[in-house]
């Protein structure tokens, strides 16, 4: 079992930066891939970034590639999403999610149904 809690959201001007954190409470955090998703009003939840259990692999959606960086600290059961050069279209509720326990160090997941545990989300608002 994993419980996830996001933090770090807020209001920022376009061009600014935020760092989101996802803190996990379970003992198997380091055995799971972690993903960030976001959902804007009236839209479906979309993939943002993912990191493998060992941080060997990462991947990003096209809209955020080059601006966002995902990282993890397994010793402290935390995953981060550094968001730079923010745009108004980045405004959304951001969720972190954890997959089932996996063995492959490079395995990633891009689809929401591949994730078993979800946080409650943190609001990010980018003003123009």
Architecture overview:
The protein is mainly β and 128 residues long. It is built from no helices and 11 strands. The strands form 2 sheets. Strands 2, 4, 5, 6, 9, 10 and 11 form a 7-stranded mixed beta sheet that branches. Strands 1-3-8-7 form a 4-stranded antiparallel beta sheet, with no helix packed on it. Strand 4 and strand 5 form a beta hairpin.
Outline of the structure:
The protein has 128 residues and is mostly beta strands.
Shape: globular
Provide mean pLDDT, rounded. 96
CA(first)-CA(last) distance: 40 Å
The share of residues in extended strands comes to over 45%
Task: Name the helicity range.
Answer: under 10%
Which spans have pLDDT < 50 for at least 5 consecutive residues?
A: none
Largest sheet: 7 strands, mixed
The number of helical elements comes to 0
**Count of individual beta strands:** 11
Quaternary state of the chains: single chain
Q: What is the radius of gyration?
A: 14 Å
Return the string of H and E elements: EEEEEEEEEEE
The helix-and-strand class reads mainly beta
